[in-house]
Amino acid sequence: MANVLIVEARFYDHLNDMLVAGAKAAIEGAGHHAEVLTVPGALEVPGAIALASESGRWDAFVALGVVIRGETYHFEIVANESARGIMALTMDGVAIGNGILTTEDEAQAIARADPAQLDKGGGAAKAALAMLDLKDRLG
Ligand SMILES: Nc1c(NC[C@H](O)[C@H](O)[C@H](O)CO)[nH]c(=O)[nH]c1=O
Ligand SMILES: CC(=O)[C@@H](O)COP(=O)(O)O
């Protein structure tokens, strides 16, 4: 049984609740243990995963959050830099599934967060478990 940490950027409560539900269901459905750590926004997710990874308490990580385009360049910063930080950790060998949604509007986010629709939280959790399995197999 693996210990999996879900790191969620709680920027939109109703959307995050769905993403976390989907991720937890996927992790627990596969027989693993899930915990949730909440950070303010997507830009904090890579740093939180880096700190948690250093502690050695978790085997894999699921990054969750929602970035919805606004009026300014801030969308690009939050969307691109959170993904860049997560990818840097991935290249360092940390098992992570990235479920940070980057959407044009709330309707796109709902369709992707809802476990009964596109279930991107569950998909990110499955990706994290697949990377953990790969790490175990490649040693
Ligand atoms: N606009 C969104 C943000 N912005 C906040 C940043 O992620 C960060 O918390 C702040 O700049 C302080 O460092 N975060 C999201 O998760 N989603 C957004 O749509
Ligand atoms: C991530 C965003 O684009 C958004 O939350 C920020 O909105 P704005 O660009 O209108 O300040």
TrEMBL record:
Gene3D superfamilies: Lumazine/riboflavin synthase (3.40.50.960). The active site is at residue 74. Pathway: Cofactor biosynthesis; riboflavin biosynthesis; riboflavin from 2-hydroxy-3-oxobutyl phosphate and 5-amino-6-(D-ribitylamino)uracil: step 1/2. InterPro entries: LS, LS/RS, LS/RS_sf. It is an enzyme of class 2 (transferase). Coiled coil: none annotated. SUPFAM superfamilies: Lumazine synthase (SSF52121). Pfam families: DMRL_synthase. It catalyses: (2S)-2-hydroxy-3-oxobutyl phosphate + 5-amino-6-(D-ribitylamino)uracil = 6,7-dimethyl-8-(1-D-ribityl)lumazine + phosphate + 2 H2O + H(+). The keyword Transferase applies. Its EC number is 2.5.1.78. The keyword Transferase applies. One of its GO terms (molecular function) is 6,7-dimethyl-8-ribityllumazine synthase activity. (2S)-2-hydroxy-3-oxobutyl phosphate binds at residues 71-72, 112. One of its GO terms (biological process) is riboflavin biosynthetic process. One of its GO terms (cellular component) is riboflavin synthase complex. It comes from the Bacteria. 5-amino-6-(D-ribitylamino)uracil binds at residues 11, 42-44, 66-68, 98. Keywords: Riboflavin biosynthesis, Transferase. Belongs to the DMRL synthase family. Catalyzes the formation of 6,7-dimethyl-8-ribityllumazine by condensation of 5-amino-6-(D-ribitylamino)uracil with 3,4-dihydroxy-2-butanone 4-phosphate. This is the penultimate step in the biosynthesis of riboflavin. This is 6,7-dimethyl-8-ribityllumazine synthase.
